[in-house]
Amino acid sequence: MIDRRISAELNALIDSGPAVALIGPRQVGKTTLALAIGERRPSIYLDLESDADRAKLTEPELYLDQHSDKLVILDEVHRLPNLFQNLRGLIDRGRRTGKKTGRFLLLGSASIELLKQSGETLAGRIAYLEMHPIDGTEVPADQMNTLWVRGGFPDSFLASSDRVSQRWRQDFIRTYLERDIPLLGPRIPAETLRRFWTMLAHHQSGLLNAADFARALGVDGKTVASYLDLLVDLLLVRRLEPWHSNLGKRLVKSPRIYVRDSGIAHTLLGLATQEEVLGHPVAGASWEGFVIETLIGAAPAGTQNNFYRTAAGAEIDLLLTPPGDRPWAIEIKRSLTPKVEKGFYLACEDIEPSRRIVIYPGTETFPLKQNVEAMALKSAAQALLELS
Question: Is 73:45 a contact under the CB 8 Å cutoff?
């Protein structure tokens, strides 16, 4: 079992409040982590996709009150959104009797925003934590390329071969399209959504142009927006918003789109091995998305994530703004001899970031001109972790 960085934070939240919601895509390791935590304290686990476990919650307050001395782990909690009202009463009664922490651990496969809509009745009583796939800070440096090619879903990354990993990801995509998405969102033809998801993979790191996608799919722009919202809500696609400021510059206003897991992006494009990925035009954009996911995962809670681009060509791949700090300007290059374009320096003059970093696939840190540092992904991620 890979030691997940999020484990310590999750334990701390359980020990400091009555309820914690752990959010993340399917198969990312939420249940494994929750069960490992449950083994170290009195607990009970209920899978709300199981008919037998859902039947136990026909009268939820009666059942859960019997286990008020345990951590109750509720998996796939978005399947029973009405349960949140019952949890509120149980939490409030527990507070009055001195049971103020460690009551409920809720696991869900939808976004924090969607779960918050269902869990508005728990406002002030619940903490939210997002679990990402395995990232570059959680594996040795010599496994970084394997992680990039296979992606961070544990069963994919730990597979016995690239082909076995590819088969797992194909099954993962098919299951989402044919079973999970119809249950979690509006009815969308699986083949249409697969085409759209594949188009996003081809368009990795590109600016969103809904009209182009709409023409290719034979639908209107609003339909494309609803498809994209669904994939974003399911934590499968990242919509990286542009930086907004009053600099007097003409800024690009369209978001950039990334399939969040590099392995899923590669499978959508039919790429199974590192040689196939490196031989495909998407290699640079895929590496960029991989780096962005690792750095966003390592950044302190509350960090704003943006990119910067002006009509005049000034551009920064990723701006990370930690709470109370100036932005970090990050350029991403898939080259052992990274060269920084003029547009990055111009953008830094506009933004005045606290750090200027170029991420490259090497291992050393060395200076470039105008206070820019070339850093390995692991080193940059560690620097962000130290801010927490």
Answer: yes
